[in-house]
Amino acid sequence: MQVEMILQGKGGVGKSLIASLLAQYISTPDLKPLCLDTDPVNATFSGYRAFDVETLDIMEGDDINPRTFDHLIERIMTGSGERMVIDNGASTFVPLCSYLLQNDVAGLLTEAGHSIRLHSVITGGQALADTIEGFSSLCRNIPAAPVVVWLNEYFGKAVHNGKGFEDSKVYDKHKGRVEALVTIPAVKPETFGLDMNKIMTRRLTFDEAVASPDFTIMERQRLKMMKRTLFANMAKANL
């Protein structure tokens, strides 16, 4: 089983969007990935009816409920020929990273012939420093799994002191861990931005929106263009 796990300690930066994009990209007419939402505060991913997302409460107070997560690992270990997408909330980031490290979950899955890939988000604007720290923390605390970095330009490009993320010290330090970079490009907020916000608010896939009479001809056209761009970027990353 190939496990895609989205982890970032900063909230509101596009984790659930990335989970939905992965689920759409991976899905085929005959097979959908297993989708889980562990966010105890904002279970956005579970709102996508197209994926039959299962909500999994892995927290007990401020810590991981080890038995619940043990059950999830058991499910992964006994699965075959499937892909899984797990969206995790900002509030679960620290305890979940601790659990994964203490139990060497990445090593366990790899030894059993399964794969786990971590996905982190870097976004521009005010959240840039926090998301970079979240990425760095992920690399430090879970050393045995490759990381895909998503550069979400919705709030601006990930640029600090005139340098992009790929020219930053933190990227240089951890670039051996980075399997791929995927860009979610900046778009015109009054057109493409509103269209994307509309499908995210309604928890729709691109295909559902394009088939819906609630979207105008030009909204559907722009969403088709966005899907092509994003899927092409994911294809380049070999996702």
Question: Strands, helices and their partners?
Answer:
Elements: E1 2-6, H1 15-26, E2 34-37, E3 54-55, E4 59-60, E5 63-64, H2 66-78, E6 83-87, H3 93-102, H4 105-111, E7 115-123, H5 128-141, E8 147-152, E9 159-160, E10 163-164, H6 169-174, E11 178-184, H7 189-201, H8 206-210, H9 217-236
Parallel strand pairs: 1-6, 1-7, 2-3, 2-6, 7-8, 8-11
Antiparallel strand pairs: 4-5, 9-10
Helix pairs in contact: 7-9
Account of the protein in words:
The chain is α/β, with parallel strands linked by helices and 239 residues long. The chain folds into 2 domains: 2-186, 3-Layer(aba) Sandwich (Rossmann fold), CATH 3.40.50.300; 188-230. The chain has 9 helices and 11 strands. It has helices at residues 15-26, 66-78, 93-102, 105-111, 128-141, 169-174, 189-201, 206-210, 217-236, and strands at 2-6, 34-37, 54-55, 59-60, 63-64, 83-87, 115-123, 147-152, 159-160, 163-164, 178-184. A 7-stranded parallel β-sheet has the order 3-2-6-1-7-8-11, with helices on both faces. The mean pLDDT is 91. InterPro entries: CobQ/CobB/MinD/ParA_Nub-bd_dom, P-loop_NTPase. Pfam families: CbiA.
